[in-house]
Amino acid sequence: MNRLLVHAAAALGTLLAVVSLTPVAGWWAAGLARPWDERSGDVLIVLAGEVLDNNMIGQTSYWRSMYALMTWKQGGFRTLVVSGEDRAVGPMLDFLVCEGIPRTAIVADRQSSSTHENAVNTALLLRSLPGRYVLLTSDYHMFRAWRAFNAVGVQTIGRPFPDALKRVNSMRARWGIFCDLTAESAAIAWYKWKGWI
User: What are the counts of helices (DSSP H) followed by strands (DSSP E) for the chain?
Assistant: First the structure.
């Protein structure tokens, strides 16, 4: 039993060293960020992330909102679609409107609790919003999100922003990024098995 514990501790220590001291997390995040395209469009779609317990905007939702705002201000978009759970979408809408995006230019899907539901529910909204669609989400989430939208017939331009790719510059953040990437890769496998991507 002691030998098993020693081997487990050695394996965990090795994994921690590899994640913390090598660029493996950055390579992994960059691979999941595909496709990456800087073209503009008519409708910007941003996917909600986390929300804090007190219904305040969470970290992923904040960064997705911030990059949606910066992309919107580059010009060319007529409509911004925010998709996610109601308790995450509300704080994002408040943020975007406070930062100057007209509320009349924003369409909200407040019913989606997964990336698959984001795609399905947004596809219904887009029936009345013709044009070229740009999908904005975290870099490590783009692989699955872009394919989920394609699977329901919505062709989008993938526009990930550097979420994990920015955080990976901090050695202290690399373990958290590794956990995010592991969870995302498991979700990709699940979506493939379900036929959602």
Answer: 8, 5
**Max Cα–Cα distance, the chain, nearest Å:** 64
Interatomic CA distance for residues 118 and 45, integer angstroms? 10
What H or E segment, with its residue span, contains residue 108? strand 106-109
100 Ramachandran zone, left/alpha/beta (phi>0; psi -120 to 50)? left
Segment 1-26 shows an average pLDDT of 60
Distance (Å, whole) CA 189 – CA 148: 13
The distance of Cα 129 from the centroid of its chain, to the nearest Å, equals: 22
Reported as a single tens digit per residue, the pLDDT across 94-110 is: 999 999 999 999 999 99
Tokens of 107: 């369409």
d(CA 120, CA 47): 13
Token code pair at residue 8: 């487990």
60 vs 28: which has the higher pLDDT:
60
Residues near 52 by beta carbon (within 8 Å), at least 6 away in sequence: 58
Look over the chain and give the mean of its residue pLDDT values, rounded to a whole number.
87
Q: Which fold has domain 29-194?
A: Rossmann fold (3.40.50)
Q: CA of 92: how far to CAs of 8, 32, 191, in Å?
A: 42, 24, 26
Res 152: pLDDT: 97
**Considering just the CA atoms, what is the radius of gyration of the chain in Å?**
18
Are 139 and 161 in contact by the 8 Å Cβ rule? The answer is yes
Evaluate whether 96 touches 82 at the Cβ level (below 8 Å): yes
